[in-house]
Amino acid sequence: MIRWIFGMLFGMLLLISVMFGQLLYNASEDKGKQEPIEKPEYHLQIIVQNTDEYFWNFFKEGAKAAEEEYGVYVEFVPVSRKDAGVIKEAVEKGINAGVDGIAFQPADTKQTKDIVAEAKKREIALLTYENDSFNIPNTPMVGSSSYNIGTMAGNMAVNATNGKSNVVVIMNEAGEQGDVLYRNLLIQGIMEAFSKYSTINIKEIFTLDKDMFEAERVTSSIISDVKNVDLIICFDERSTPAVAQVLVDNNMVGDVKIIGYGFMPQTLDYIERGVIYGTVCPNAYEIGYYTVKQLAQSLKGEQISDYTPTEVYSIDAKNVNEYNNVIK
Question: In what residue span(s) does the Periplasmic binding protein domain sit (predicted)?
Fold first, then answer.
């Protein structure tokens, strides 16, 4: 009986030893997985809009490429809309969290200056991107030129109509003073492209609000209320396919040409089908890449530019297949 009891105790002790050894092995393995070989030197936050626009997909790809190249950690913080109060709150959270650098799109001047002052006190690097509308002193900027976007759209309109057309422009709602400046720069660019032609002019400018079906409503108003429209320029990425669909539904493809904005798959499909003449795109990948690069270099004590311009390009029937391959 005693030998049996000792045997049971020995067996239990052996089982416990094996289980304990396995536990130590697993803990050691997990520890090895959790600890990266190299820790990022800086933690950066980028405030982005939480939308389905393809701009943000390519912007993030560019930012992640620079993250790896410059040995930093990039955290994307989504906000619901481009609103001054919402953006200020998101940036302030980053400042209070003690991150090393923050990049964002300003939505006003006053609250953005408050953010800049607070970040400077805490020695946090700030940068704005896709912002040539708000004058934010002592804050570097990365992005495309609104004037160049307008000029490129205007040149495409000239090519689409041989310099003879009545043009309607669709733009986003102007809220803050900077939004008005952005719109003015776009229109100035278009007018520069039209300046050599007396037979092409802007008949009317329509404004989109934040309603989901606003583009359909505005386009329907254009084709029913504005006489002799030959071409529509739409400066909103999400609305460009909606404008095209209204023309399809009303059997007006070819009667009214479209110059769009952005890189959405539906837009490229409509270009391929001849519904949309072409689209103007900021180089989102480049904007994301240089946003992270400039912040990283600034934190490392390197001299950076006050303004880093990025490419604007156009897509039409001649090169649409090249870009279709990029998003597939």
Answer: 46-303
Which CATH code, of 3.40.50.20, 2.60.40.1080, 3.40.50.2300, 1.10.15.40, is assigned to 43-144+284-311? 3.40.50.2300
For the question of whether the overall pTM of this predicted structure is more than 0.90, the answer is no
C-alpha distance across the termini of the chain, in Å: 75
- Cα separation, 101 vs 86, whole angstroms: 18
The CATH class of 146-281 is alpha beta
Question: The tokens 């200056």 sit on which residue?
Answer: 113
Q: CATH 3.40.50.2300 in the chain, residues?
A: 43-144+284-311, 146-281
Cα angle, residue 182 at apex, residues 186 and 211 outer, rounded to 5°: 95
Q: To the nearest whole percent, how much of the chain has pLDDT over 90?
A: 68
DSSP code for 105: -
For residue 43, the surrounding DSSP H or E stretch is strand 43-49
Tens digits of residue pLDDT in 35-91: 343 688 899 999 999 887 889 999 999 999 999 999 999 999 999 887 888 999 999
What is the distance between the alpha carbons of residues 141 and 257, in angstroms, rounded to a whole number?
A: 34
Q: Residue 157 corresponds to which amino acid?
A: A
Helix (H) or strand (E) holding 69: helix 54-70
